[in-house]
Amino acid sequence: xxxxxxxxxxxxxxxxxxxxxxxxxxxxxxxxxxxxxxxxxxxxxxxxxxxxxxxxxxxxxxxxxxxxxxxxxxxxxxxxxxxxxxxxxxxxxxxxxxxxxxxxxxxxxxxxxxxxxxxxxxxxxxxxxxxxxxxxxxxxxxxxxxxxxxxxxxxxxxxxxxxxxxxxxxxxxxxxxxxxxxxxxxxxxxxxxxxxxxxxxxxxxxxxxxxxxxxxxxxxxxxxxxxxxxxxxxxxxxxxxxxxxxxxxxxxxxxxxxxxxxxxxxxxxxxxxxxxxxxxxxxxxxxxxxxxxxxxxxxxxxxxxxxxxx
Length: 310
Ligand code: RIB
Ligand code: CA
Prior knowledge:
The chain is an alpha/beta fold.
């Protein structure tokens, strides 16, 4: 069976780290590279975190540093959830893995231009790297097989009442990507907020007893504590890995093909993903927006992913 080629663009981030873990050894996926962007924390932090995760898990996947700030707006991070390092909690061995020399945007352009149009772009942070690649080399756009993003929400946001963090952190970049004309699958808060990592889930994954289960438990210890302090939840929503779970088994989510627009001009609703779930505006559908998740199937995929490191 042909593996699905992906580039994982992320801002580790605890949930990004689990997305890397889930994709890293899955036999259905061929991770061409991990490209890193500023988001949850500064680029220095998110790149170091990505290197620590791939080194800890023994993944032979190249890591590329990308954009350190959004295309237009001022930088914004999510230190309240992910901590000063962006990956507070786990203690890693001395870091020996190094970044690739090429800039992430250049890697995305080169890889897509050299491809047969069979590469899926997965973004689990602000979409700056992908948008900049589209602007620098528009010929890559038709080469993108699909864009699968964690971002947005057709209901409430998590950074402002209307906006989710990944979109809010660079709405102009999301606007570029959502208007690229390529197939988009939007995995938003509407489903990821149902993937709550309760203590029972952490115990279940810890029992696997390998390097991935230990990292998972160490990551969730901080992530869930922070989510409880900020949002009062007993379990932290494991946003980013839902994108990878969808690539492994598309039936884990249900989507609706609707018109989805990114708000970039409003003061109050900047970064809003306006998803016309009931086609009020009768506009052309542009994105497959997730509205339901099979939570049990999701956690089974996570456990299988962790077991793949034994
Ligand atoms: O809103 C959730 C998203 O913002 C996740 O990708 C998390 O890692 C943060 O980047
Ligand atoms: Ca992220």
